[in-house]
UniProtKB/TrEMBL annotation:
GO terms for molecular function: cysteine synthase activity; O-acetylhomoserine aminocarboxypropyltransferase activity; pyridoxal phosphate binding. Signal peptide: none annotated. Its EC number is 2.5.1.49. It comes from Sulfurospirillum barnesii (strain ATCC 700032 / DSM 10660 / SES-3). The keyword Cytoplasm does not apply. Belongs to the trans-sulfuration enzymes family. InterPro entries: Cys/Met-Metab_PyrdxlP-dep_enz (IPR000277), OAc-hSer/O-AcSer_sulfhydrylase (IPR006235), PyrdxlP-dep_Trfase (IPR015424), PyrdxlP-dep_Trfase_major (IPR015421), PyrdxlP-dep_Trfase_small (IPR015422). This is O-acetylhomoserine sulfhydrylase.
Length: 424
């Protein structure tokens, strides 16, 4: 029954499934510890011979319900919630690549991810090549080496707002025998389900639209269960793991090998699981995901139209505008273009800062994707730590103002921007 439900029903009903007499609403299982009837039960858990909770560093019933909900929405075989989106990206890659390995990522992605890939993973001996997404499939193939283990992109790039060409990158990953990892943070499973378009692994910063209220930092990794880890490139999946008495992940867990390995190796050892309290908050937020996303899309479209017509605005970037370079990709893969747009003020950075300072309803925040409208200047905020070249690759120009359009009344949002733009 659940598989046939519409996504609006799944956001509300999937995950927590109370049995007779149990709480209707997902409880916060604020317990580090679980109780067993005998020693053998625990031994079975430690040997991965039985499934169940052992310790809340590795799994927890509240987190498990959230994982089940997100896996159902994305159409995956399983999910793992993490302490942040950054941690989800880290584990998504580290679960595949070891020291000496290489992977490929589209250059125009979230600044924090670029920094993680080019600095911190590099220290662990993992090399990344950042590529221009507009290259042809044949040109992109030249970046692949024998030790290339993954391909990474974002559905809607933050903050450049390029829309991912799933067909091209999905085919590239398939032909090169590597998993295609997609950060679906800006789209959410309501607007796009990457696993239906060739992705193998989906990640999210749950801090953004899944929570949607700016109250909880979290991340999630979803396993599509649709990648063949036994193609010869991934010995960690097909050779015995000595930290579990020599189990072989592909043999023991089949199409759930990736997500189980991520939990029982990485989360066990690194200890970056989501807390039950934050899982509860994210779950409450997600119950209105579909309603919020419709309004975010509608408001962002209307604000984009208004800004496009304003005499003090130099340019507007929003994929649902028919003039956007990725408009056709947006129509092909997305139900809506989400709630983030960017624009430049005539006169450049200095005039843009004046507009930001004159806004009253729209607050200056280092965040996107919550119910309140907010603005940000990436060059001096989120992308500050990147070099000029990396900023350029990420699509961050000095005059770019990013707006996260909230779900207030559109007339009030437009009035705020109108007043601020007219004040310069
Ligand atoms: C915010 C963000 C992240 C990082 O997530 P955190 O929860 O802040 O760690 C990763 N990817 C994208 C697209 C983001 O917007």
């Amino acid at each position: 029954m659940q598989n046939s439900w519409e996504i609006e029903t799944k956001t509300i009903q999937c995950g927590w499934e109370p049995k007779n007499g149990e709480p209707r609403v997902l409880p916060i299982y604020q317990s580090t510890t679980y109780k067993y009837d005998n020693v053998n039960e625990v031994a079975m858990l430690f040997d991965l011979e039985a499934s169940g909770h052992m310790y809340s560093r590795i799994s927890n019933p509240t987190c498990e319900a959230l994982e089940a909900k997100i896996a159902a929405l994305e159409g995956g075989v399983g999910a793992l919630v993490t302490s942040s989106g950054q941690n989800a990206s880290t584990i998504a890659i580290a679960n595949i690549c070891s020291s000496g390995d290489h992977f490929i990522a589209i250059g125009a992605i979230y600044g924090g991810t670029v920094s993680l890939f080019t600095n911190t993973l590099k220290k662990m001996g993992i090399e990344v090549s950042l590529v221009d997404a507009s290259l042809s499939k044949e040109e992109l193939k030249r970046y692949f080496k024998p030790n290339t283990k993954a391909l990474f992109g974002e559905t809607i790039a933050n903050p450049k707002l390029d829309v991912l060409d799933f067909e091209k990158f999905g085919a590239l990953a398939r032909e090169m025998g590597v998993p295609f990892i997609v950060d679906n943070t800006f789209a959410t499973p309501y607007l796009c389900r990457p696993l239906e378009h060739g992705a193998n692994i989906v990640i999210h910063s749950a801090t953004k639209y899944l929570d949607g209220h700016a109250i909880s930092v979290g991340g999630v990794i979803v396993d599509g269960g649709n990648f063949d880890w036994s193609n010869g490139k991934f010995p960690e999946f097909t050779e015995p793991d000595k930290s579990y008495h020599g189990i072989v992940y592909t043999e023991k867990f089949g199409n759930m090998a990736y997500i189980i390995k991520a939990r029982v190796q990485w989360i066990r050892d690194i200890g970056s699981y989501l807390t039950p309290m934050n899982a509860f908050l994210t779950n409450v937020g997600m119950e209105t995901l579909h309603v919020r996303m419709d309004r975010h899309c509608e408001n962002a479209y209307n604000l984009a139209q208004f800004l496009s017509a304003h005499p003090n605005v130099a340019w507007v970037n929003y994929p649902a505008l028919s003039t956007h370079k990725d408009y056709n990709l947006m129509l092909k893969y997305l139900k809506g273009a989400s709630g983030v747009l960017s624009f430049g003020v005539k006169g450049g950075r200095a005039e843009g800062e004046k507009v930001m300072n004159a806004l009253k309803l729209a607050a200056i925040v280092v965040h996107v994707a919550d119910v309140r409208t907010g603005v940000l200047h990436p060059a001096s905020m989120t992308h500050r730590q990147l070099s000029e070249e990396e900023q350029r690759q990420a699509g961050v120009t000095p005059d770019l103002i990013r707006v996260s359009v909230g779900i207030e009344h559109i007339d009030d949002i437009i009035a705020d921007f109108n007043h601020a733009l007219n004040s310069i």
